[in-house]
Description:
The complex is a heterodimer of chains A (395) and B (374). Chain A has 395 residues and is an alpha/beta fold. Helices cover 61% and strands 11% of the residues of chain A.
Amino acid sequence: MGTLQRIFKLVIKELHLLKSDKRALFMAILLPPLIMAAFSSMAFLSGMTGVTSVKIAIVNYDDLYTSYTFPNGTDIQSNQNVWAQILIKTLKNSNLTEVEASYNINTTIYGMLYARELLKQQKVSAIVSIPSEFSEAIQYHFPALIEIIPDGSDVDILRTVLNNLQEVLTEFQQGNNITPYFQIESNIEFSTGGSSDLLGFVSALSVPFLIIGATLILTLLVIVKEAPLARLLMTPAKKSEILLSKYITYGGIMVFQIFLIFIVNTIIGLQVAGSLLDFFIAMLLVGLYGISLGILISALSSTEIQANEYFLGIFLISVLLSGMFVPVESMAPWLQALAYAFPLAHAVPLLSNISLKGLGLTYGPNLLYTSCLLGVSLIIILLTALVFYRKKYEV
Amino acid sequence: MARIWDLVIKEFGRIKSDRKGLVMLFLFPLITVIIFGFSSGGGYQIAYTVSIINQDAQFHGTNMAQAFFLSNSTMTVISNYTATNPTEFQNAFEEAFQLLKSDQIEMLFIIPENFSDYVANGTNPIVIVYTDGSDYTSFNDLYLALSEPFMQFKMLENNWSGTIVMFPYPEYGVPAGWNQILNYMAGIMIPLIIIATSMNVSSLSIVTELPLPRLMLTPASRRDIILSKFIGYSLIMIVQVLVVFFTSIAFGLYISGSPLNILITLLLAGLSGVSLGIFISTLCSTEAQANQFFIGIFIFLALFSGAFIPISDMPAAFGIIANALPFAHVIPLFQNTAFRAAPLEFIHVLSLLIFCLVLLVLALIMFRFRKMEV
């Protein structure tokens, strides 16, 4: 019997082994696309909800009598509040802000205390405090200062609050011709627009995460739990053939898994700016990394519990170093080096560049990401072969 | 009680038999906290990398370009071109656009040729900006990011007309001098680690136990077995939580409220993980199935945790699902204690306890119907 025939028979054996646990096989194939379908639908529908408005409380001091000397010596004594009223109206009319409460310090002396209580109870995300010299500063062409007290406990909400308020201030300036203001002609590149944008963005993050998880778990126990492996070595089948048959079998299932995830994403509305084939190949590269790593863990472990622990550790570290939570550039240099040894640090920008920027698989920075994914996968396969060759089996 | 205690001791004996696995159990959560401990940066301020093309080589245009170099906290100028004729502009634009395309810059800022005329006439100057739409957070921050160079420009020009400045004083945030990344991520990262590790270990608790059918021949009831597993794996989880908690504190975890409340929150997260794991184990008949279920549920929990899409932005039906999962309660409990010094909110604690209880009851029901042969 030739090598090819033996490998074919071994692949058949692997498939029979897989078929013996139909429920596990069913879950391996169906769970990832089902999770992707749920998440992608959510991302797509969330993208359709449009602008996120922020709840604010306004505390207006501008009504108070102002006795103020500007830095150039100009002395102002007045109690104008015309611009504050216009700003409050702009904040109330804007779809970027939702005014929960507005206090005028002249009539509600403890307005700031009430507003702070609302912030503490998380009923508002920020307090906009309009100082007593606000209207005068605009009238006399001095910088008008506004104090914002945002909720700093969530960095994403904090950024949304500041961005929304900055945009409302621009609306306020432009709507009332408070000149000169900058007219920004904004061109957003590499964006498809609408809800598919958010889907594209979260897909670039979630697809590699899902593929790595699904492929690692698929291959994690292929060597460590195969009890008849030692007896198999008494047959003419060589270790290289056994290993190769495992790569072929699980590679085939991985391709099928990825194909289903790809189809689900496309049906739900993922628009890929680049080539669909490039996107699919990039997903396959991530899958290849996953099965290589899974089989290595399986070869390295002596018990199933150990394999599980290795898997969890590698998976968690890989997710944490992916750049999803902390930008890779913010990490210490030695951590950056470690991050680039894991697949997600390459997979996320690679998929994002293809789906949103339309870059080819080997174009610009993608060449590095592709080579790293492929190169590290090959190194892992070689390492697995080495471990598997040295592994002792007793019948 | 005595029977349950004996069964707990038996569980420990089983876990101890795989010492390498036991070490990993504590080592990996520790490594992950250390990773974040050694990270730096973070916070709410975004730093943009930018290329400038100045088509207006006159005084005001030069000041505008100069303003970007002075905006140290939000802008890093990667390249600056002066292009006063169409050919120079075309070349500069192509080069800068290439930088935008290859991720080397996040913004291309163009000062048009008539910029100085507009400024001199006191009319509103137009600027052209290209941003990277594939970086979702980056292009959303555009107006905020540009406010600093615009302010610097006004300072250089000494003309404050039409200027409105926003001064943020964030409350309940991470104070300056503390590790921003570790602290802003801790509310998601630490519960994620605890739920993942406790769920992973306990998901194999029933499915891998070969002598379990023989145990059924002893006076131990099925309820005793499930309870003993829950107690055994919870005790291991408590040690894990303590290791993660004290390591995080050693790396500068900022807690403005009671550290005990953080500890209780993490224990509740761990209990959710153990309950989920035991439930998975009763559902599955092989390790491969348990592993598939574990990863499926863990990825589902992570994707619906609010880390990818905030729960408040999710469509109503998905929001309900997310709120039924532990992260929707663990994250606010953690963040409110750490940043607001708030007491534990009863509704979140109750939700987590109900989550654990429901899963334990379901596990018990599944285990009762499970067929075992000696």
